[in-house]
Amino acid sequence: MVSLRREGWQVSNSMVGRILTHLKAHGVLKEAVRKRISTHKRQPPRPYAIRKPQEYQIEKPGDLVEVDTLDVRPLPGVALKHFTAWDVVEVDNKATSFTAVGFLESLAKRMPFPIKALQVDGGSEFQAAFEEACQERGIRLFVLPPRSPKLNGHVERAQRTHAEEFYEVVDFPLEITALNQSLLAWEHTYNTIRPHQALDWKTPMEYIRECHPELASAAYLSHMW
Questions:
Q1: Residue 76, in any domain of the structure
Q2: What is the per-residue pLDDT across 31-60, written as a single tens digit (0 to 9) for each?
Q3: Most buried among 26, 31, 168, 183, by the most CB within 10 A?
Q4: Which is it for the CA torsion 137, 93, 43, 62, positive or negative?
Q5: What is the pLDDT of residues 138-169, one digit of tens each?
Q6: Closest CA to 170 of 153, 187, 154
Q7: How far apart are CA 104 and CA 115, in angstroms?
Q8: What are the distances in angstroms from CA 7 to CA 4, 11, 40?
Q9: pLDDT over 70 percentage in the chain
Q10: Closest by alpha carbon to 192, among 83, 87, 102, 40?
């Protein structure tokens, strides 16, 4: 409209709209075919992971275990990847689908109850080999929609606790094996000593024993945690 008025044409917006509509309807004016030039690539279809169905019911621990990673940068030039599944923690030098498989194996060993489903974000570490490992184990894998970390709110809150009560206050070793040993000690504290407000000030062990005794025996809990 501004360009037309500069050329001396006194027309209204509605008139221009009607003219354009008429020309398009009669094939005189055709829309240009738009080409995508965005650098953002569409993610390929996931072979196994899906969005969590609305009808999926969560009734007991293990029905849905949230998993996430946390960047740990204790020194300039040092970057570690911390894996959390709320009650189980582990760290590696990098987050790949293969290191995520390693964490899945630790998770299966150390969780005091069977894992029915996992929920992850769209990170590449939770694709490829990790997705295949979940399928092989018969663990359902739910992937979050983009930019929706609040849907993994439990593990996000746990990440904050691990950062504030371990990484920010403990003089931990940087060597991975030694650091994971320190994390095992912290995991024991987190699950058996530290009260959790979300669990009515019970520890996770106390919560399992009191509220879901059918999931694991006391001896099993004692062995794992």
A1: yes
A2: 777 666 555 556 667 899 999 999 999 999
A3: 183
A4: positive
A5: 999 999 998 888 899 999 999 999 999 999 99
A6: 187
A7: 10
A8: 5, 11, 40
A9: 89
A10: 87
Q: Which domain CATH number covers 156?
A: 3.30.420.10
Residue 121 backbone phi and psi in degrees, to 5 = -85, -170
pTM of the model: 0.76
Residue 158 within a domain: yes
Non-local CB neighbours of 88 within 8 Å, separated by 6+ positions: 106, 107, 110, 111, 187
Encoded tokens for 8:
């001396």
Domain-embedded: residue 38: no
Distance CA 116, CA 166 (A): 29
Nearest alpha-carbon partner for 80 in 194, 191, 205, 167 = 167
pLDDT at 115 (0 to 100): 94
The total domain count for the chain is 1
Range of the domain at 108: 65-172
Q: What is the mean pLDDT of residues 107-128?
A: 93
Nearest to 99 by CA among 133, 142, 66, 65: 133
203 in a domain, yes or no?
no
